Amino acid sequence: MSLFEPYTLPVSGVTLPNRLVLAPMTTYSGTPEGQISPGEVALLQRRAAGGFGTVITAACYVDRDGQAFINQWGCDNDDKLDSLRKAASAIKAEGAIAILQIHDGGRMADPKVLREPAPRSASAIAAERQGYLEPRAMTAAEVEKSIADFAAAAKRAAVAGFDGVEIHGANTYLIQQFFSPHSNRRDDEWGGDLERRLRYPITLAKAVRAAVGDQFIVGYRFSPEEIENPGITFDDTLVLVDRLADCRLDYLHISLGNYAAGSMRDPQSTQRLSTLVIEKLAGRVPLMAVGGIETVEQAELPLQDGAELVALGRVALWEPDWPNKVKAGRTDLRQALPAKDGDIICTLPRPLYESIIQRAGWVKIAAE
């Protein structure tokens, strides 16, 4: 199986030009009103032109109260349609498939973007990280509205010209907060034991598919484990992916910091988690893999393991032409982000570039 072999998704029937996907990455580069900026449009279009067959956008909030980042863009109402159209059009103009990642930050909202004194989540349990506030527990009516907001955002994405959406159920945000025994201590139908903690993500996934029909791509991103105790275990996740496999999804996207690493909860276990997910899925849903992939050999490993798609994140920031260069057999792949004028050279929004430069260790920076 080649990185450049097309792939037809099982439910929507959409054929992806190749197996390479631009991973969704936060840019901090929208407007304060939640609109996309010209710099972010240019970022997306450059990667599509660089050969990524599928481009997933940065997380886009479905509810203003679920905004998580400064200058995050939104898809929460129809006044965002022109903004969404700019992104979809830029990606599709280069022949790539355009996927909008739909998102709610829950308790992981940056306090600077909150309109209320506290964010909301499954329960009033603070994250075990500095800088985040204790949330308030959502009411049952708010839970129902949240699911409806995701479905409405998916429909809005279709109207704006996207080919699909990715439900952001990973990286400790709201959907994961309902699944996690750390953040979900509810005693109603939306929380408690594993079965009730599954209800929110499964109901939401089904609602999104129902809202857009079968001709539209619907994917779901998940994190396989949490380090907290109590927290999501890999056994929990195997139950989740088994249930998600019955939700008529086009793919599942496993969110990993290092694809080749083993369990973070059990340091003695070195088996790659994706291989166990692939075994559980048994071909029912394609798997998209991600996690520190920079080289051709690293990109081919997930395909050898049985995954169907490979997402590249940070390497695409400093080498937007990675797929085209690899396909052409070129060896001049950039190895790090330029320390000077990297935003111009690599087509990055200035706010994102400045954030990268100021945050040591996040992205490789070339020596000046």
Automatic annotation (TrEMBL):
<feature type="domain" description="NADH:flavin oxidoreductase/NADH oxidase N-terminal">
    <location>
        <begin position="2"/>
        <end position="331"/>
    </location>
</feature>
<dbReference type="Pfam" id="PF00724">
    <property type="entry name" value="Oxidored_FMN"/>
</dbReference>
<dbReference type="GO" id="GO:0010181">
    <property type="term" value="F:FMN binding"/>
</dbReference>
<dbReference type="GO" id="GO:0006207">
    <property type="term" value="P:'de novo' pyrimidine nucleobase biosynthetic process"/>
</dbReference>
<dbReference type="InterPro" id="IPR001295">
    <property type="entry name" value="Dihydroorotate_DH_CS"/>
</dbReference>
<dbReference type="InterPro" id="IPR001155">
    <property type="entry name" value="OxRdtase_FMN_N"/>
</dbReference>
<keyword id="KW-0560">Oxidoreductase</keyword>
<dbReference type="InterPro" id="IPR013785">
    <property type="entry name" value="Aldolase_TIM"/>
</dbReference>
<protein>
    <recommendedName>
        <fullName>NADH:flavin oxidoreductase/NADH oxidase N-terminal domain-containing protein</fullName>
    </recommendedName>
</protein>
<dbReference type="InterPro" id="IPR051799">
    <property type="entry name" value="NADH_flavin_oxidoreductase"/>
</dbReference>
<keyword id="KW-0285">Flavoprotein</keyword>
<dbReference type="GO" id="GO:0016627">
    <property type="term" value="F:oxidoreductase activity, acting on the CH-CH group of donors"/>
</dbReference>
